[in-house]
Amino acid sequence: MPIGGESVRVFLFVATLGYSRRVYAQAFRHERQSAWVDGLEAAFGHFGGVLQEVLLGNARALVQRHDAATGEVCFNAKFHAFARYWDFRPRACAPYRARTKGKDERGVGYVKHNAIAGHEFLSWAALEAHLVWWAREIADTHVHGTTGERPLERFTRAEASALRALAGRPPFRQMRELVRRVQADCAIELDTNAYSVPWKLIGETVQVVVASGRVSIRHRGAGIAAHTERTGRRQRVVDPTHLTGIARPRPSAPAEAAGGQPVGGLEPAACELLRPLSEYERAAGGGW
After folding, report:
1. pLDDT in tens, 99-158
2. DSSP code of 29?
3. 106, 278, 279, 281, 285 from 288: Cα distances, Å
4. What is the DSSP letter of 193?
5. Assign residue 273 a region: left if phi > 0, alpha if psi is -120 to 50, beta otherwise?
6. Tell me, what's the pLDDT at 182?
């Protein structure tokens, strides 16, 4: 399509709600997986919540394998992680089945012919602004041919309450999920920086999520630590409570002066380990 006096290839992401038929459309310069992820998250924001189920085409960026005979679908691992992150159930259109594929494609055709056809735009930003205006002023307010109602009114009355709140979660692509092993210094290493965890987890494997400037650490599904992410290098972040109980002082008898009188503070107190040495041996992976 013509943008800024040049012919530009545009890929349209279109999301249509199944009940109200509300439409969200966004333009991209490619159809890679990042466009699908960004488009879906923008749609969640536009509709004001996360859907329970998303019906998708069999795009190669999303679906690795779809067996037409058995109906078995294998989604791309990263897209599957995206679905888990937002807690929605992905479904792929059945191949060669007009009922699902046609429903998926009709929304795209509607945007192409009603919002885009015959238009020229001065810039990419002008195209994006036009799609926002069109969704608000045209798509949301026209009487839908199938439902006989305006999509926004139908959405507000019966569909909005079924969406799950976004809860301020950061975009998926701004989040990193990692696995780390707790080192002998009661910390995990991330981008050369060290973040503490409870000392009893030395040697254990933990899951780390980095998002919105926070480092969240979980062990067997339970949150065990949370720190502010450091942007420098070789820094150490320690929560003192993670070291509580690692050692305790053992009182020592005061030393005696030559005349037999006790003199306090001449000998340092010894420390008594709360864990048997065998546990440290197992964590270190060797013998003493």
Report:
1. 555 455 678 889 999 999 999 999 999 999 999 999 999 999 999 988 999 999 999 999
2. S
3. 70, 9, 11, 7, 10
4. E
5. beta
6. 96
Nearest partner of 104 among 37, 57, 42, judged by Cα: 57
CA distance 106 to 92: 16
The C-alpha atoms of residue 215 and residue 7 are separated, in whole angstroms, by 45
Cβ atoms of 39 and 26 within 8 Å: the answer is yes
Strands 255-256, 53-56: pairing is: unpaired
Q: Classify strands 236-237 and 193-196 as parallel, antiparallel or unpaired.
A: parallel
CA Rg value for the chain: 29
pLDDT of residue 267: 40
19: left (phi over 0), alpha (psi -120 to 50) or beta: alpha
How many whole angstroms separate alpha carbon 15 and alpha carbon 81? 20
| Cα(102)–Cα(21) distance, integer angstroms | 14
Helix, strand or coil for residue 220?
coil
DSSP secondary structure letters along 129-167 = HHHHHHIIIIITTSPPTTTSS-HHHHIIIIIGGGSBP-T
In order of their start, the domains of the chain are 2-162 (3.30.420.10), 175-253+266-288 (no CATH)
- Rounded distance between C-alpha atoms, residue 36 and residue 172, angstroms: 12
Contact present, 73 and 185 (Cβ < 8 Å) = no
Q: Are 231 and 273 in contact (CB under 8 A)?
A: no
pLDDT tens-digit readout, 150-173: 999 999 999 999 999 998 888 888
Q: Are 46 and 3 in contact (CB under 8 A)?
A: no
